[in-house]
Amino acid sequence: MQKGYILSLESDAWLFHADLLVDKAHVVMLEERGIISSEDAAAILNGLTKIAARGREFVERELPAYEDVHTAVESVLIREIGEEVGGRMHTGRSRNDEVATCIRIAVRDELLGLAEEVNKLRRALLKRAGENVETVLPGYTHLQHAQPTTLAHHLLAHADAFARDFARLEDAYGRVNACPLGAAAFASTGFPIDRERTAELLGFDAVLENSMDAVSTRDFVVETVSCYANLGTNLSRLAEEVILWSSAEFGFVRLPADYATGSSIMPQKRNPDYAELVRARAGTVFGCLVAVLSICKALPYAYNRDLQEVTPHLLRAAKTTAASVAVVRGVVAGQEFREEKMRRQAEVDFTTATELADTLVRETGVPFRTAHKIVASLASAERGRPSLRKIDEFATCVAGKRLSELGLTEEKVKEALEIASNIEKREVKGGPAKKEVLRMLQARRSDLEVDERSRVAKEVKVKRRLEELEREVEKKRIMP
Ligand code: ARG
Questions:
Q1: pTM score, two decimals?
Q2: For 2-93+465-477, CATH number?
Q3: Is 316 in the pocket of ligand 1 (CB under 6 A)?
Q4: Given the CA of residue 8, which atom of ligand 1 is nearest to it?
Q5: By CB count within 10 A, which of 46, 394, 408, 451 is most buried?
Q6: In the chain, domain spans
Q7: Which helix (H) or strand (E) holds 195?
Q8: Does the annotation mark 8 as catalytic?
């Protein structure tokens, strides 16, 4: 006998709290509709209240003995108050709609908690960006020096990615927070249950209507874990930069002590293990996504036990992602930026070449492609800052033109080669110029406030409904 094979203890422990809420809401509704008597409802709700109070102890002591959390709660209830009464709790429902409802309740909490973490991370990034509007940074493409920018511009880029992650989580929440309860095994029930009522008591925004769809689908899990995977990708990119930037080669940041580790042999080491694990755990979450997709693929309608195997991957992805967001926030908030090193590196490898080519276009009217050729030949042949005389030499060779005769001045060349003016000139929408970065900072701060308010409103709505549920339970379990 391999009885343990069909258990999924860890995710059932995760669903314990939600299961009791679902039981209570269902019993309240059964009583309201006269499907069970007030006396029976009172006894069941009293029994459920006792089980809820047992908390962790119930999970550790009772859960392992049963097929799943739903069976455990019902069986212990019957053990305590007898089958004549306790045996009425499961009227008009099935474990299929029960588990689907529990998962949605549990994942909704995870989504709200994660969205809050993401917003804290966004706030930390905006704060660091605000402190570094004038901090010069070499911008990279292909990890090669490309053009100068500012640290604020760079941090705002990450903040925008996490703002989209927030939006995706919020969007997923809308589809998660619909209630399958009352779908029963898949064909609903002949009892006159009220699905709207249980959905309301449990804080759902809608009823997931078609009873066959309601119990069979885990597309909300695919969607949620996709959000985690996308977020994980964004986290891993930031983590990768922290790893690179804290190396001696870059030397752009000093890791916060809380997020660095030493070596067991090399006394001088300050290793970015936390960031490395953020990078790695994005991979763990991708694995969860592939697992969820693979399990759900090609399942015939309606319920199949395969669906139980989805839940641990959801749980793992949720916990992993939330922990990684918190770590990245700690690193972002605590890392020390080495501004001097960034500034010095921003000059290396002719990062002003694009601006020089642009200046040739603006001052002399040569086509950009011609200017590109002139500056490219200069860049590959010359070390150091090109003078007007040098530019003329190369322009004559490449394009048969002396640019000084077409309006290019020593002063304009000098300006093109200045890092600060390179940045300030890029003031188009979204560019790194101070004015534009300050505008973006302001806009992102107010977007963040709007997002956080919308998140809190969801949290409050659920909380109020669950308080209402507890009031109903209290009313009904104390018989007059
Ligand atoms: N623990 C199960 C799950 O997660 C509950 C549903 C069992 N239903 C059934 N028909 N065997 O899916």
A1: 0.96
A2: 1.10.275.10
A3: no
A4: 1
A5: 408
A6: 2-93+465-477, 353-417
A7: helix 195-201
A8: no
